[in-house]
Structures are given as C-alpha cells and as structure tokens.
Amino acid sequence: MIHLTRLNRIPLVLNADLIETIEATPDTVISLTTGQKLVVLEPAEEVVRRVLEFRRAIHSGTLLCPRLLAEPEECPAQPAGSDPPETHGEDRRAS
Pick from 63, 69, 68, 61: which is nearest to 92 by CA? Predict the structure, then answer.
C-alpha cells in the first residue's frame, strides 16, 4: 500500500498491486487493473519510488505489520518456534 494525494488534496492509500500504468500528462494519471483511473499530485517518478520502496520492504522482511501506526502488541505474533525474518540482505535462495 502506498500513500498518495488526489488533486483535491484528499489523501488516499492505494494497493500498489492494482497499478497497471502511470502516465504524466502533465498530471499523474494512474490506471488500475480494475479499469479505474486516479489523478494524483505526486509526479510519476515519486509514485514509482514509493511502489519500489513498498515492495523492497515486503521482500526484505522489514514490513512485518501492515497496520499504519500499529502498537507492537497489535502486530501478529511470530508462530511458536519460528525465527524472525532475516533483514541483513542475505540471499535466502542459497539455502
């Protein structure tokens, strides 16, 4: 999920998995896989940067609790006997 701002300055949180295309015309127009189009204040390059940052956080394991402003006790607990995800950049495919 990424935070963006509509042209009328109303914030929105967008599911980055639904983005199909991003156009700069000169406003930033985001086309979703649902057929919906969103026009946002952020430039296309910033939207791409936020999507990449979000995906990196997921793949590195640093995005453990998806709730905004979640208290630690609200985050899901690790299953008993499991190790926390590694976040030191090791290639997990090597094992």
Answer: 61
Burial bucket for residue 40 (CB in 10 Å: 0-12, 13-18, 19+):
buried
Q: In sequence order, what are the residues at sequence separation of 6 or more whose Cβ sits closer than 8 angstroms to the Cβ of residue 29?
A: 22, 23, 37, 38, 39
CA dist 88 and 51 (Å) reads: 21
Please report, in tens digits, the pLDDT of each residue of the chain (95 residues total): 999 999 999 999 999 999 999 999 999 999 999 999 999 999 999 999 999 999 998 888 776 555 544 455 555 554 445 455 444 444 444 44
Predicted model pTM: 0.64
SS3 content of the chain, % helix, strand, coil (to 5): 25, 25, 45
**Residue ranges per domain, the chain?**
33-61
